[in-house]
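2024-03-11 09:14:02 INFO queue: dequeued item Guanylate cyclase domain-containing protein, len=187
2024-03-11 09:14:02 INFO validating residues
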Amino acid sequence: PVARASILFVMIVDFDQHARRLGPEGLLAFLNREFTRMDRICARHDATKIETVGEEYVCAVGVLPADRAAESVEGHSAILGRLVRVADAILHAQAPGVQFKMGMHTGPVVAGVIGQKLPRFRLFGDTVNTAARMMQKGVPGQLQFGEETRAQLPGWVRVAPRGEIELKGKGRVAAFLLGSRPEAPQP
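2024-03-11 09:14:37 INFO prediction written
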């Protein structure tokens, strides 16, 4: 188990419309272009890509031993700041006609490789589910997160309260959006 990680879900808005417009081969090229761009952004900011499923991309900080070592020295807000930079860079890399909505959550996860045929590194737990629900209930072109993440953010991150939203299995929870472009000190 990992005591504290931060998970980011990114979803391509209006995916079905893109699929109809592009056809199968065009859709594959589109997804490859968008997800490869996200891969590069994650690599630049030391975030770990977890998986892609359909039109969703998942990445995290705090799940690998190097992250846990950095967290023990710098605190979780420092590594969470890297994930905020990832989200901001992805939002600012949106191509014309393409929008993303994002959800992030911070908390405990279980991480490990599962399966023998096509084994994959996976994350499990309420933190993962909550990040996905934050994305699903999110706002196109925005990063949405709850109090658990807001409380861990570095001081340079600007936050805009959204109000309460209804999350499956959680009831009404306070939601926040990433404010104007963060003035992040560069690593």
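2024-03-11 09:14:37 INFO annotate: The CA atoms of residues 107 and 127 lie 5 Å apart.
2024-03-11 09:14:38 INFO item closed
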